[in-house]
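## Example record

The block below lists the input lines for one assembly entry, exactly as stored, with component labels intact.
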Amino acid sequence: MTEKHLKLTLNTDQDLIAREVPSQRVLEITLQAPDSAARAQRAALNLALVLDRSGSMAGEKLEYVKQAAMHVLDLLAETDRVALVAYDDEVNLLSPSLPVTPQNRADIQRRIQPLSDGGSTNLSGGWLTGCQEIASTAQEGMLSRALLLTDGQANRGIVDLEELAQHARELARRGISTSTFGVGQGFNEHLLEAMSNQGSGSFYYIEHPRQIPELFAKEFSELAAVTAREVELVLDVPSQVGVSVLGGWRWEQRGSKLHIFAGSLYAGRSQEIYVKLLTPPAGALEQLAFSARVTAQGEDGQALTNQAEIVLRYASQHESESAPRRLDVLQRYAGVDLAETAGEALKLERSGERDKASRLLNQSLQSNRAYADKQRLSEYENLSERMKRGMDEGDRKTSHHVAYNQKRRREP
Amino acid sequence: MEKDEWMIHELAELAGVTVRTIRYYTIEGLLPPPLMRGKFACYTQAHLRRLELIRQLKDAYLPLREIRQTMSGLSDEEVQERLNARAEQIDLTTPLPPAPADDKSSAMDYIARLMGRQAELRTPGSSSQPKPPGLHQLPPAVKAVEQTWRRVELAPGIEVHIRQPFAPLAPHEVQSILNHVRNLLQSSGGTP
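Predicted structure tokens for the full assembly:
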């Protein structure tokens, strides 16, 4: 049987909270996109391929990028659109956004072939030009995304991480998402992750250039299977409850409502999102109710919606502390919490604060020790040791990517 | 003079954070260490105000590293000033970011604004091309102004160049003209 609904489930590690003192609880939100209707076509894609051709891309990397771009073009259908941008210190719009007719496909592929490497890296210029192409042709029902590939530091145009992430966030709010692909050892993993997190897309680490086509294909197959996009969850948060969202999702609090933007979900894929709750002492209240509503656009642009509620009941501190807790929720949460902290610690390590990085991760290891997977714990203990000694670029990027996948609960 | 002094858990409750958070901020250097009263650690109004400012900075999505840099350079008086300034700001304007825009043209406007601003910020580079000799050379006092052009290929073989930013028309107006021409070209039998 195919599932037509966008499913929403709320779960906590325990439904009792202490009357006398604040309690910390874990809220697990699970979203599941509907299955694809067998006869329905996938959503039309409106893509911009934004390719780095700065000097450092010379040789093998650029060849693989070309191959990947060719391949993505082969996978697109006439209902899709694609734009092609190459950037070094200058930005070249190699092809404006065009429908992928056989004629256009051949034309665009011809423009990829002679692509050669140039100067420095105007990442923002290339990316914004790609977004501009998408924005100018976006139509109702299309999934619009820029695929930004780079192997270097942004050193022309806008180079600040926070600023680029902010623009990615603003563009995602306007319907244009961004996925990022970092190749080799020279790029800034924290920048690319921030852009894709705030841009409602995915981040890929491409350790070896030969993986470029494979990872582009992975992004494409996820895009092609999307059955819920612009997924937005609104959680009603009772007054005085503190919330914090794990996993790097784009989120904001407006009054008593917590908005979490989960981007696009592909058929059958479950996405767990964890929210740390800090509940206040009871006062006159018997319970706290958390209701959530999710909205999204389905395959044919139809509105998908669902809702769920969970109630935390006040009990004596003793009762709430001795009641059993849901181990499966805590295990999953512990993995995400560790990975999130590891990401922060890796930023510190990169900025030279090795001891602080290791200490931060150790604190998280300490608090998650009771529930986290043994294997995972020992991997992060090991990472903490390596942080103390200082890490090389390859280790930084691999470790960051592992943590990224774990905190988003993505398949590696 | 500050008279109130609190234990760590009292401060935590007042500030709406956990004891762990206070310890963490102290280790991280976001908060000054507590005053020692014998064997007790005491926290003051100054700590409370710092916690409030940290919360506001976090709400503005500033990363911890940046918050630390900001906080470490502030005296207690400056912390107070910042809080006052922020309170006024919040009174005057809505604390929320601008409402989400639904129309796609706003993405166009957003990008165009951004690119326009970049063009403004970019320092006019010295032209490496020697100027052609001519009778009507500009007086030397006038600097060459660098211009940014957007190049749009409408179909293979047909290009339009638009100076950025382009004042006479709004970005989405330019775009709808381009779209129109593109559609005309496509409907008249595709590529020339």
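The first helix of chain B runs from residue 8 to 15. Chain B touches chain A through 40 residues (CB under 8 Å).
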